[in-house]
Design goal:
By secondary structure, the protein is an alpha/beta fold. It folds into two domains: about 160 residues, 3-Layer(aba) Sandwich (Rossmann fold), CATH 3.40.50.10490; about 130 residues, Rossmann fold (3-Layer(aba) Sandwich). The protein is about 45% helix and about 15% strand. It has twelve helices and nine strands. It has a five-stranded parallel β-sheet with strand order 2-1-3-4-5, sandwiched between helices. The protein has a four-stranded parallel β-sheet with strand order 7-6-8-9.
Length: about 325
Amino acid sequence: MLKYLEDFPIQCKQAVEIARKFPIDRKRYDSIEQVVVCGMGGSAAGGDLLKSYLQREAKIPIEVNRNYLLPRYVGKKTLVFAVSYSGNTEETLSAYADALSRSAKIIAITSGGKLKELCHKDGIDVIEIMGGMPPRATFGYLFFPTLVLLERLGLIGSKEEEIQETIENLQMLCKQYNPQSRANSAKEISERIKGHLLLIYAAEHLAACAVRWKNQFNENSKNVAFFSLLPEMNHNEIEVWASSNEFTKKFYLIFLRDSAENERIKQRISITEGILKDKVAGIQHVVSCGKSLLSRLHSLVYLGDWVSTYLALTNSVDPIPTPMISLLKRKLSQL
């Protein structure tokens, strides 16, 4: 997994190049009124980030669908990204068939499998990416094609400068987080949170990052982790911390912060931390870095990937295999 992380900036650059060179007929995708990204697990993570990144800019709604069927509104004026790294994710294959039956505009992103076969048979555009990797290690391959294609279809403005800044920022961060780095904040965080239940808190616009951190702790570290968003958790979840006991002391809180976050959110986080600090094992703040929102979001995603991998290694756990997911799939295939 460390090798995949070290290669991540290169992966992002390659993904952008693949999407820019992909032959696409803009007339085929005219009159788009909604965008839906279909995927599961690591294949849905890019859709989450796309939604978080563009929610204040895009003039059309962008949603992520983690299900067998699509929302009722999906139709001829909907662009559906069918994203399955393996090409064999049953929920995504089902959603693909649903989109096809409704005459939605479909673009698939996959390394092969059944999805690739269906796209070729049905005359659907398919962006093929490199295979042989854990899906969660292909974030760049699965995210950047969706962003670049929205740009090329005229659904959003040019992102060339922000993409370039993001890649350069990732290259800098790679030097800070790789195993040879002496002042390695990713390693330090992993050592600090070892042996605890993890709870990630973040502002709403960082939702994709919070989900990613939680999922990476689950899959890479095999560590229990949850997430909640502010300000919503201030209206309900904060009540579970009314008392301090042995159970609450098992939790380590991680606040994902944005260097350009809303002033009221800053105040809420400060007050929330003050209320909770004596009830939990510890609190860690992680602040994004970068000029553009795209770069800042990726900085948080990238750090979380490193921290979860170092936590796995600290716990003597191989971050790549996912035996419980494999077991579940085997049992489903027997039905």
